[in-house]
Each structure stands twice: as structure tokens, then as C-alpha cells.
């Protein structure tokens, strides 16, 4: 060791810097500050002191530094380098101690990670010494609230967002997240504003919330201010419908008066009329005098309330007569059953990846960019319609059909299986087909090999009963070939899977269907070495809040290209079998003697599980000891044994 230290001290500063840069700043400061004069001078440099990450990260979770490291930083290291620190990344449990252990005259940026929702609201609203730091120093702020703390009651994410912008009066950069779970929702137009904020990263729950933030209240945002004379290109895309076009979208576009290129992809509700070329001309184009390229894809929806006049597709096309340099396609439909109307207008060639709610009025063309298509109408889709759809969308990967009306033309065909006069449709790239809400004729349309050739295996969302009817109880030869292309098929739990069904779907995974319900997991780190009572209480509350918990690995092995379940093994450890099980059995036998109507038996775990899975009806109810019952239920459910939290909650692994 002494020789190695001599070699390290003999290295020039340039080489030492190359070595130290490969280490974490916290490790460098903890290991070398005060070590000797040469290293002490090097590690005091701005490379190692300007930005400090005072956390440990594991499995996408943030944890405090180890005790001795944390204590030395607060008592010795941070007071020595306090004037050099400009940015601190902290986690909630040690944040207060680190920020208050010394003064940071040049601190301007904070990253707050793994910060509980309620704690976040408290530190930005309570009168504490931290408030002074947020108000007087911080111009850049990153706030990361874990998803597990967002659910439940208490202050909302929007409350915290509002509190931060109210307190941090010097804020120029603000990232609020993580974006996938921290979604802002404003019940009313927010009251917050900022004259200093230059860059903001947030996620909103709906389109209107986005427009609220872009209405000029943050008047120094470099890309979205009250007037944006330098903005040349702007794209606004939203899949969710809005009724705030006139109130929020039009004023936003008017502030961008030097736009050269504009891309609008919107879905809107109308009260009296559809959105058409007149709206584009008078509300948008006439205000953007430098506009050279305008790409749009706009759907508007109208509720039918006995209107005297309903515009036609010809009326809609006529409204575009004064719009130059654009080929515009329009499609107007009215649905009497739903009492709704829709108008779809777009510039051609079409540039989106999705084309929604296509009807029989569809204007055919070539849409090479589209990958997802949905069809809807209250009039039947005939075979010729699907031929045109396949030609118009040659690279379609997902198709959803909504139509409850029976096909008409098939009634005039000589035979249900004799469709040789029809062209067979091919969907070479189709991987997903949704037929959950259709008449049986459309199930037949895709399963009959004289109408459709499914060239590859695909996921098909479809109910059991229509398939049973169309395939003549899984005996029809004309549907056998396409049925063999299904990746999976769900069978109601009351149906017994017979060999005939397996033969009809030879390459298909057949599942029992219990309930169609999405599962949203709340991820909480779990360890046998609980750091403190607060973490233990957090885990218990999470189980109580969700009602059930699954314990397991939440990552995919990166070395192999398949999903893997890992079971740990402790090598070279001897185990001793005790006699406690016999005492337990004797106790159970004594209790069972008091209840002669209950059959008492002794079965090992494997045999019990096999009996329950293969022939569950032989038991009216099973009464077991606690641990035995847990093991049985876990094995039957496909889990290995888990842990219990008190008498009410269990976590299965």
C-alpha cells in the first residue's frame, strides 16, 4: 500500500485528473479531501465541487448516502467547499440536514429526488429556513416525486406545482416529474405566473391544461411568450378532443405572427357547426401572413339537436376554394343512432401514423405513413370496402372495426363458403386486429379464407361466442386456416377446453378469461433490512391502499434476450430439519377431533397443490394453519412463498 501511495503522489496533476474524473464526485471528495496537499488542491477544483449528487441510486429509486459518508460530508467536507457548490442533487430524508449544515453563497440549482408528495407540499409552504433558500437562491429546480406517493388523498400534484412557482420567485429552469406520472390538472384557469421562467418541463393531464400554461402567464418563456416574433415553425398535436379552440388555441396562434410552417393535428367539439376551410382562412391563415407551409389534420364533432341545416361534404369542400397550395380532403358523416356528426379535414398527402373513424364515405388514396386504422359506421362495411382499405393503407399494422350492422351483399351470394368471385384481401403487415364490437359478419370477413388471407400470426381481440358461431362450433373448414394464425384465444371460465378446440387452434395459446381489467402497479422497494420505521410504515400503507401486493423482480435481465425469473441460492449452507412440524400436526389433530364433520388429513404441500388445481371441487373449504395456507395459495397461484405483514396483509413473491 505504501508503494502504491508513492506512485500515486508521483503522478503529474494532468494524469491524476484523468483518473479522478472517472470516479464519482462524492467518492473523490470523501476519499481524497485532506489526504495530502496535492490531492486536496485537485479535489477542491470546480470539476468535483460544483455539482454534487448526495444520493445513492438503485433500481430507479434514490437512497441517502451511507451513515459515515453522510456524517463526514455534513460536518467536515461541505463546510470546506461550501462556496464552490453550485448544484445539489438530494433525496428527501437528508435534504434538510445538507441544506442547513452550512451556507452556500453560490448555490443556484437543486435536484430533489424521491420526495414524498406531502413532504414536497410542506417544504414549499411552511415557514422554515428552507423557504429562504428557495426564494433567494434557486434559479434552476428539478423535482422528482415517485409514483407510489402520488396516489391517495392529500394535496394534489397541481397544488405542489403551484406552491413551487409561488415560492421560487427567481426560477428560470423548472423540471417537474417524473413526466410519466406527474400530470397537472387545473379545475379552473390557474392563478400562477412568472416573469423569470425561461424553460419549463411538465406534463399535463389534458389538452386544455396545456393551453392554460401557454396563454401568456409565463411571459419570458423563450419559445412561448406573449408575442413570439422569432418562432418560424410550430407544431400542435393532440389526440384528445377539446372545446377550447376559440378561447385558447386561436389566441395562441395569433401570438406567432411570423410563422413560416404550421402543423395542426386536433380533435374538437363544435356546438353549431363543423370546423372547415372558412375557420382556417379567417381565424388562422389571415393572421399568419408569412405562412408558407400549412399541414393540418382536424376532426370536429357535432351533437345533433334537430338542426335545421346540416352541411354536406360538398359544402365542406367548397369552403377551401380560397386556400392555395394545399390539396384538402374532407369527409362529413352523420350518425342517427348516436345523434352525432363528424367532419374530418386534412391536407394531402396525409402525414399521420393513425387514421381514426373511417366510414363508407372515405375518400380513397394512398396513405403510406399510417400504421393504425379504426373503422366505424352505422351502415354495413361490404367486402369491396375492405379491399379499398387494404390498398389505401399498405403498411397498416393495427386495425380496429366498430360496426353492428350485418353485411347486405353477402345475402346475394350463392353459398356462404363459395366466394370465388370475390378478391381475397391480404394484410401483409397486420399484427393486431380488434373485433370486439362487431357483427358476426365481420368476424367471418376476416376468418373466412375465401375473403381474407392472414399472411402472418397476429393478436386478435375477439369474443368467444362470435367465433364459435362463425366457425360452426369449431368445425368449419373454410375458417380453419386463418384461425390457426391467431396468437391467443380467450375462453370463458365456464367452458371446458376440449381437444377439438385445441386442434382447431393448433398454434394458438388458449386462455381462460376471468375479467378484462388493466393492472396499474405501484412500485415500492422492499428489503429485509428496513432502514427505519418510516419506510416500514410506507410499505404497509402501500399494501393497505392497494389491497394486494406482488413481490418480485421489476427488471429484465439485460444479458439474455428473454424474460427471466431469478431464484437466489445460498451456497454451502447446511439446513437442519426440526421436529416442529410433528408438534404442529399433533395440535391440528387434537383440534380436528372436536369437529367430527370436518375431514382431517395430512398432505405434503406438493400433493395438496396438485389436488386443489386438478380437482378443486372435492373440497368445500380448506382450513389450514397460517404459514401452510400461505404456501399452498402461493404455489397454486404460480408464486413462490412470500411474506406476511401483520395478520391482514401478505406480499407474495
Structure description:
The protein has about 650 residues and is an alpha/beta fold. Among the domains are: about 225-350, no CATH class; about 360-515, no CATH class; about 535-650, no CATH class. Helices cover about 30% and strands about 20% of the residues. It contains 23 helices and 27 strands. The chain has a 6-stranded parallel sheet with strand order 1-4-5-6-7-9. A hairpin with a 4-residue loop joins β14 and β15. α2 crosses α4 (about 35-45), α16 packs across α17 (about 465-470) and α22 packs across α23 (about 625-635). The chain starts with a helix and ends with a strand.
- Choose one word for the global shape: flat
> Gyration radius, to the nearest Å?
33 Å
- The poorly predicted ranges are 1-6, 554-582, 639-647
Total helices: the number is 23
Q: Percent of residues in beta strands?
A: 15-25%
Helix content: 25-40%
Tell me about the largest β-sheet: 6 strands, parallel
On the 0 to 100 scale, the average pLDDT is 79
| Through-space gap between termini | 45 Å
| Classification by helices and strands | alpha/beta
Biggest sheet, strands in spatial order?
A: 1-4-5-6-7-9
Q: How many strands?
A: 27
Keyword list:
disordered N terminus; alpha/beta; five-stranded mixed beta sheet; 23 helices; 653 residues; 21% strand; flat; six-stranded parallel beta sheet
What is this structure, in a nutshell?
One of its GO terms (biological process) is isocitrate metabolic process. By secondary structure, this protein is an alpha/beta fold.
Task: Produce the secondary structure layout.
Layout: H1 2-10, H2 13-21, H3 25-32, H4 37-43, H5 46-49, E1 51-53, E2 56-58, E3 61-63, H6 67-81, E4 87-91, H7 92-100, E5 109-113, H8 117-123, H9 129-136, E6 140-144, H10 157-167, E7 173-177, E8 183-184, E9 199-201, E10 203-204, H11 207-213, E11 233-242, H12 245-254, E12 261-270, H13 277-284, E13 293-303, H14 313-318, E14 327-335, E15 340-348, E16 354-358, E17 372-376, H15 383-392, E18 398-403, E19 425-426, E20 432-438, H16 440-447, E21 452-453, E22 459-461, H17 464-470, H18 480-483, E23 488-492, H19 499-504, E24 509-513, H20 533-546, E25 549-550, H21 580-593, H22 605-614, H23 626-636, E26 643-645, E27 649-652
Parallel strand pairs: 1-4, 4-5, 5-6, 6-7, 7-9, 8-10, 11-12, 12-13, 16-17, 17-18, 18-20, 19-21, 20-22, 23-24, 25-27
Antiparallel strand pairs: 2-3, 13-15, 14-15, 26-27
Amino acid at each position: 500500500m505504501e508503494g502504491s501511495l508513492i506512485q500515486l503522489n508521483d503522478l503529474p496533476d494532468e494524469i491524476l485528473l484523468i483518473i479522478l474524473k472517472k470516479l464519482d464526485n462524492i467518492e473523490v471528495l470523501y476519499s481524497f479531501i485532506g489526504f495530502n496537499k496535492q490531492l486536496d488542491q485537485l479535489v477542491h477544483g470546480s470539476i468535483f465541487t460544483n455539482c454534487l449528487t448526495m444520493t445513492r441510486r438503485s433500481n430507479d429509486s434514490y437512497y441517502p448516502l451511507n451513515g459515515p459518508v453522510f456524517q463526514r460530508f455534513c460536518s467536515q467536507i461541505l463546510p470546506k467547499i461550501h462556496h464552490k457548490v453550485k448544484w445539489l442533487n438530494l433525496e428527501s430524508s437528508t435534504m434538510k440536514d445538507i441544506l442547513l449544515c452550512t451556507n452556500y453563497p453560490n448555490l443556484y440549482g437543486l435536484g430533489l429526488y424521491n420526495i414524498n408528495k406531502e413532504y414536497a407540499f410542506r417544504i414549499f409552504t411552511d415557514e422554515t429556513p428552507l423557504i429562504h433558500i428557495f426564494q433567494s437562491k434557486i434559479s434552476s429546480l428539478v423535482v422528482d416525486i415517485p409514483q407510489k406517493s402520488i396516489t391517495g388523498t392529500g394535496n394534489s400534484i397541481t397544488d405542489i406545482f403551484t406552491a413551487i412557482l409561488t415560492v421560487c420567485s427567481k426560477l428560470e429552469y423548472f423540471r417537474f416529474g417524473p413526466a410519466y406520472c406527474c400530470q397537472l390538472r387545473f379545475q379552473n384557469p390557474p392563478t400562477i405566473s412568472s416573469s423569470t421562467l425561461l424553460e419549463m418541463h411538465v406534463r399535463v393531464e389534458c389538452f386544455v391544461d396545456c393551453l392554460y400554461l401557454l396563454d401568456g402567464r409565463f411571459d419570458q418563456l423563450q419559445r412561448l411568450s406573449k408575442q413570439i416574433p422569432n418562432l418560424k415553425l410550430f407544431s400542435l398535436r393532440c389526440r384528445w378532443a377539446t372545446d377550447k379552440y376559440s378561447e385558447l388555441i386561436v389566441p395562441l396562434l395569433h401570438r406567432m405572427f411570423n410563422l413560416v410552417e404550421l402543423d395542426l393535428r386536433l380533435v374538437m367539439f363544435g356546438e353549431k357547426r363543423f370546423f372547415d376551410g372558412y375557420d382556417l382562412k379567417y381565424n388562422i391563415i389571415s393572421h399568419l401572413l408569412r405562412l408558407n407551409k400549412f399541414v393540418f389534420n382536424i376532426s370536429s364533432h357535432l351533437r345533433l339537436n334537430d338542426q335545421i341545416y346540416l352541411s354536406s361534404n360538398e359544402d365542406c369542400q367548397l369552403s377551401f376554394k380560397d386556400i392555395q397550395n394545399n390539396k384538402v380532403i374532407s369527409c362529413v358523416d352523420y350518425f342517427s343512432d348516436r345523434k352525432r356528426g363528424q367532419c374530418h379535414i386534412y391536407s394531402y398527402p396525409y402525414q399521420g401514423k393513425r387514421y381514426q373513424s373511417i366510414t363508407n364515405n372515405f375518400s380513397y388514396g394512398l396513405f403510406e405513413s399510417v400504421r393504425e386504422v379504426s373503422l366505424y359506421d352505422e351502415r354495413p362495411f361490404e367486402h369491396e370496402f375492405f379491399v379499398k382499405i387494404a390498398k389505401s393503407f399498405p403498411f397498416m399494422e393495427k386495425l380496429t372495426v366498430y360496426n353492428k350492422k350485418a353485411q347486405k351483399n353477402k345475402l346475394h351470394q350463392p353459398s356462404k363458403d363459395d366466394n370465388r368471385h370475390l378478391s381475397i384481401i391480404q394484410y401483409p403487415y397486420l399484427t393486431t386486429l380488434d373485433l370486439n364490437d362487431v357483427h358476426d359478419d365481420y368476424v367471418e370477413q376476416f376468418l373466412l379464407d375465401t375473403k381474407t388471407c392472414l399472411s402472418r400470426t397476429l393478436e386478435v381481440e375477439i369474443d368467444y361466442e362470435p367465433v364459435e358461431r362463425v366457425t360452426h362450433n369449431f368445425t368449419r373448414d373454410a375458417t380453419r386456416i386463418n384461425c390457426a394464425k391467431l396468437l391467443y384465444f380467450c375462453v370463458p371460465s365456464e367452458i371446458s377446453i376440449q381437444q377439438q378446440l385445441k386442434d382447431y387452434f393448433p398454434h394458438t395459446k388458449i386462455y381462460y378469461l376471468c375479467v378484462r381489467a388493466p393492472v396499474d402497479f405501484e412500485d415500492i422497494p422492499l428489503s429485509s433490512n428496513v432502514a427505519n420505521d418510516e419506510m416500514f410504515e410506507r410499505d404497509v400503507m402501500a399494501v393497505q391502499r392497494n389491497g394486494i401486493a406482488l413481490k418480485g423482480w421489476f427488471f429484465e435481465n439485460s444479458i439474455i434476450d428473454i424474460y427471466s425469473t431469478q431464484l437466489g441460492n445460498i451456497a454451502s449452507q447446511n439446513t437442519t430439519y426440526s421436529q416442529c412440524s410433528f408438534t404442529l400436526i399433533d395440535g391440528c389433530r387434537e383440534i380436528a377431533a372436536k369437529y367430527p364433520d370436518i375431514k382431517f388429513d395430512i398432505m405434503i404441500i406438493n400433493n395438496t397443490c396438485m389436488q386443489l388445481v386438478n380437482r378443486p371441487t372435492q373440497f368445500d373449504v380448506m382450513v389450514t394453519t397460517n404459514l401452510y395456507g400461505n404456501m399452498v395459495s402461493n404455489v397454486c397461484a404460480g408464486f413462490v412463498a412470500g411474506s406476511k405483514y401483520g395478520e391482514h396483509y401478505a406480499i407474495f413473491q
